[in-house]
Design brief:
The strands form five sheets. A two-stranded antiparallel ribbon has the order 1-2. The chain is globular and about 55 Å long. Helix content is 31%, strand content 14%. A hairpin with a 2-residue loop joins strand 1 and strand 2. The chain is built from nine helices and ten strands. It has three domains: 120 residues, Transferase(Phosphotransferase), domain 1, CATH 1.10.510; 65 residues, no CATH class; 37 residues, no CATH class. This is Protein kinase domain-containing protein. Keywords: ATP-binding, Kinase, Nucleotide-binding, Serine/threonine-protein kinase, Transferase.
Length: 243
Amino acid sequence: MAVVSEHSHPGYVPPTLHSTSPKINLLMKALCARRQLPRRPPISSTALLPSQLVGSLKSISVTHCDIKLDNIMFAEPDSANVKLIDFGLAVETKKLSTGTEIQITPFRAPEVILGLPLDESVDMWALGVVLASVYFGNYPFPFDTEYETIRAMVQIFGLPEAEVLHKAKYRAPFFTRDNGDWRLRTPEEYTESTGEQVEKDHDPWWPEVTTTDPGRRGERHFVARDRKGRSEGHIVGTLNGET
């Protein structure tokens, strides 16, 4: 915490360390009134988060480890002034060891779930989930079980590369090999392996993925539609308070 305390940045709520004994430090952070936003903040504000927050933490080799909606504060509903709070789980990045369980499930990076080497990119993943949640008004991935989270990621991004899965400490419940090729386990196989029941049918509610973009030949892009089939333009207008 000393590293974070000495680092001045407008996006952090400054903590104060109070020592009650040589071995115990209590973190006292600013108390803020819990007010709900009257509506979702504009995209122009939320888009500033990555460079303001995660980039600054990376520059001092610190990983927050608990970026989530509860830990992002907007000074005002229409303000780009955002703050990252609650550094209780923050660590120097070099101290993050493979297999460490961090982050709550909706914001948990695939490296954490699969037991891969960890670095500050886990914060960037969590921040991306925060941005998607603010944008769409819903979590981008199911999170009742880690299997459902991984399954949704595979549906959107495809299977991880073979060399990545070879390094994954906790791959066994999620992936198996058929004739040398990796594949995602079926819900039944996952349940048999772990005893955890999972939803068999998954209908991703957010971005439909198309294979080509008329404006950018050959590139993949997301067509954003919510559960009611409303287009990206409608969603952006709603988020900005337009009717």
